[in-house]
Design goal:
Blueprint: H1 2-9, H2 21-51, H3 61-84
Helix pairs in contact: 2-3
């Protein structure tokens, strides 16, 4: 126990001199970039699922195919949801 305490005492405090409000503003401004990245990655996932060739001799292939189809549908729904969200106003700052 004393070893653990010693290890913890040698750690710097969490959020000591942290980024503060400026980082929160930067994060809000980067939400649009993050959204575009997520949409791009979801489209890549869908393309990979579409390229997948079912292996009919494989045990459990039906379950795998159903899961892939469900994942594809979820990815499509999420893309639609993200594309419906309005872009952030660069001058606006989120609070709360």
């Amino acid at each position: 126990m004393s070893q653990l305490r010693g290890d913890l005492d040698s750690c710097p405090p969490v959020n000591a001199g942290g980024p503060g409000v400026a980082a929160m503003i930067d994060r809000a401004m980067s939400d649009d970039t993050s959204r575009a990245r997520v949409v791009r990655e979801l489209r890549e996932l869908i393309a990979a699922l579409d390229r997948r060739v079912p292996q009919v001799d494989r045990v459990g292939e039906r379950a795998i195919a159903r899961a892939a189809e469900a994942l594809r549908a979820e990815a499509m729904a999420r893309i639609e949801e993200l594309e419906r969200e309005p872009a952030h106003d660069a001058g606006a700052v989120k609070t709360g």
